[in-house]
Amino acid sequence: MPKQVPQTTLTLFGQEPLDTLDRQILDTICKHGRDAQSFNKLVFEVGAFASRSTFALREKRLEKLNYIESVRDVENSQIKRIRGKPMTLLLTRIASRMKSQCAELEQAIHRRAEIIRARKTLSKDELNKEVEFIDDTNEKVKGVFSLIGVYAVNLGASAASDFLLPMVIGDFSRLNSELGAFLTSHPQLRRAILHEKLGAMPPDQLKADFKYAFGTETDTALPKFSRRLKDIAKTRKSGLQV
Question: What pTM, to 2 d.p., does this model score?
Answer without folding.
Answer: 0.71
